[in-house]
Amino acid sequence: FRLFPLREHGMNWRARPLTCQEIQAFRKSKEVMDRFVRAYKLMLGFYGINLVNEETGELERAENWRERFDNLNRFSHNNLRITRILKCLGEMGYEDYQVHLVKFFLTETLVEETLPNVKRSALDYFLFTVRSKEKRRELVHYAWQHFKPQSSFVWGPRDKLQKYR
């Protein structure tokens, strides 16, 4: 059993991928979804992040963020887990949570520059887990606005990014 199951194989090849029927059953169960949010909050805490609002998915740094961010910067295997969590959020219908988590990592990597070793994963993987095309475009634009140097930004067509909105 996986904490954040997906419809694809992960690193554990013995773990069975989820079926669409299982996802629908999970989403219909209040108990399962409450546990899912608890598991999400637990993992966020491990990464030094607090879920401020369960309705919106809004996040903030936890009190112990410096120590936890140091862990995130030193151990890149966390990036695979974060990608998995993001994909699972989408499967479970928490697309707003996806957006907030990706934006949190884009802000910390590109604006605050507190997670330099997470930047590539945030841009290469985290961004593209967001299911909503519109929200994904907004996040790509946000990343482009804060990326230095802007001329080296390769995650979207420059002409469209300049005209965005």
TrEMBL record:
- Any one GO molecular-function label of the UniProt entry: opioid growth factor receptor activity
Domain Opioid growth factor receptor (OGFr) conserved: residue ranges:
3-162
Mention any one GO cellular component term assigned to this protein in its UniProt record.
membrane
The record's section on InterPro entries has: OGF_rcpt, OGFr
User: In this record, what's one Pfam family?
Assistant: OGFr_N
Tell me the protein family, please.
Belongs to the opioid growth factor receptor family.
Name the chain's protein: OGFR factor
Question: Encoded by which gene?
Answer: Ogfr
